[in-house]
Write a structure and sequence with these properties.
The protein is α/β, with parallel strands linked by helices. The chain is built from 9 helices and 4 strands, in the order βααβββααααααα.
Length: 200
Amino acid sequence: MIAPKIKFKYSWIYDKNWQEWAKVYGYNPKKDNWPSEKKILNYIKEIKKLWDKEEKRVLEELSKVTGLSWKEKEITCYVVGRCRPFSDPLTIGLRKNRDSFIDVFIHELIHQLFTQDSNMVKSKRAWQYINKKYKKESLTTRIHIPLHAIHTHIFNKFYGEDRLNQEMTGVKNKDYVRSWRIVNQEDYKNIIQNFTSRIS
């Protein structure tokens, strides 16, 4: 199994556009002291040092626990001043807590793994099962039930219960809160087993 290399990248024009887009999420670039290009580039250097220690073991474990292979040899992660993190194009804003950046980054990488090339086809039955079993839940909640279960596995294997609890208690989105509650109620191991057993 070959894990991809992660490339953290700064794009001046992308960051400038995010200064406009971020207003949708309640940021005011002028009042919030949007990070400078120099600050973002220095941040990327710090994050890269942290991630280089984690990359191989985390990416290999994600593939192992899901039964899905990484299809891309390199994944670019854009780092901007501020944003709501998302997986494609993989984009994350600066965070004061470096561990929190890594945790959010892993969350988005799980989304990436789910959606790369043929993985959606391979996991079609697994998602049909999720959508049927949790049909009363919102789409966002349904998507995040297996994701949070897999992320729990990563927390427990590499980072510990305290860091997992920080991740869960720091969530504000009601759909995320709901998916975490389901994962805790039903046991993440059972959710992973029921999901991955349907991956062909």
